[in-house]
Amino acid sequence: MASNRKKFLIAGAIVAAVLLAAGGGLLVRQHRVGGFPFAGGPSGQVYNCPMHPYYTSDRPGECPICGMDLVPVEENDEHAGHESRVEGYASLALDARQRQLIGVRIAPVEKKVINRTIRAVGTVVPDERRVAVVHSKVSGWIDRLYVDATGQPVAAGQPLLAIFSPEVYATQEEYLVASESARELEASRSEEATRGAEALREAAERRLEYWDVRPGELERLAEAGRPLKALTVRSPYAGYVLEKHAQVGMYVQPGMPLYAVGDLSHVWVEADIYENELPFIYVGHKVEITLPYYPAETTQGTVKFIYPFLDARTRTARVRIEVANPGLKFKPDMFADVNIEHDLGEQIVVPAEAVLDAGKRKIVFVAHEGGHFEPREITVAARLEDYYVVAAGLREGEEVVTSGNFLLDSESRIKGALAGMSGGHQH
């Protein structure tokens, strides 16, 4: 029994020794491949992969991950004064073969005269300031319609309908009686009685005027010597009948809408503009408008108002454009194509594919001589189709990476993180 136990303990010690030796080898390999700086070989030289800087070795060779040649760390970390100033990023250096392998392409930073075009679809609506609602000020029955169809043109002051109103009829009688009494009392030379009769006549006349009885109709009333049957309601504007609710024989009350008359010589085009385009539009902005059924003809309009609220569903704000409409080509509810040009002047621009969106930051990789690439944070003023307008961070004549920058971004972040973990500087 003791002999068997002794054999078991000896066997366990042998297995432990083997595992310890194997573990030590694994730890050594992990230290070599883990990417943290170490003393290196006999010469002290350390090599790593430019695209995978966390892989390090004490001898030259190829990266087992991507097959690139390993380079001395000193050579890879010297960036000729182009160290990264972006937190969490490090500068990179690639030779011609490496740049070709990942497809690096560059483009110059240019200065251009920028004209931004905002395109939107608008809807033609009547100018609200040129629309009047015609209603009755008295109760009664519609006795006659002079304008009996929607869309009919009317002139200012043109009769629209006639209303028989017992109230108006009675007031006309009061006016006639007071007028006759004033004439009779004037002959009697009784000043007090004359003033009383005159006051009654003026009160009746004033009520009739408030009901829109014109002075000419009062003269006809006085000449006829008897009340007129119906009160004539007239159009306040020259324009077109946009709505008609009146019918012969219908009983009406004060405030009831009977017609809507609109002057269409000037109309509005209301267009919905996305919120990111609003900074490029202002009141007084001249715009070009094209109608679908007049594609070859362009009309100029003027932005008169920008609504102070946003549509939460479409993320757009409405812009009101005033347009002259001499030939009535712009008809209410018609669609219109709106083009708004905004001159931004001369600006620094870069291709859109050169800019990497890193959340709160916009990053580009600036290409320098010798295959050095510097990450740089920029401030953009606007996105214009296939390029960005740069407000700060780049100068005209510099070059930026437009292809392969996603790989550069990944490796730059990894290298920056490793430099931070090792207490070194970010390049």
Quick summary:
With 427 residues, the protein is α+β, with helices and mostly antiparallel strands. The chain has helices at 2-33, 73-77, 96-101, 166-188, 191-210, 215-224, 405-421, and strands at residues 47-48, 56-57, 71-72, 92-93, 105-108, 110-126, 131-135, 140-145, 153-154, 159-164, 231-234, 239-244, 251-252, 257-262, 266-274, 286-291, 294-306, 316-324, 335-351, 356-358, 361-368, 372-384, 387-392, 399-403.
Q: CATH top level of the largest domain?
A: Mainly Beta
Average of pLDDT: 81
CATH architecture of the largest domain: Beta Barrel
End-to-end distance: 67 Å
Question: Could you say how many structural domains there are in total?
Answer: 4
* CATH overall fold name of the largest domain: OB fold (Dihydrolipoamide Acetyltransferase, E2P)
Low-confidence region ranges: 1-42, 75-80
Main sheet record: 6 strands, antiparallel, barrel
Strand order of the largest sheet: 6-15-18-17-16-19
Question: What is the number of E strands?
Answer: 24
Over all CA atoms, what is the radius of gyration? 44 Å
> What is the helix content?
25-40%
Helices, by number, come to 7
Please report which band the strand proportion falls in: under 5%, 5-15%, 15-25%, 25-35%, 35-45% or over 45%.
Answer: 35-45%
Task: Write out the CATH superfamily name of the largest domain.
Answer: RNA polymerase II/Efflux pump adaptor protein, barrel-sandwich hybrid domain
Shape: rod-shaped
**Structural class estimated from helices and strands:** alpha+beta
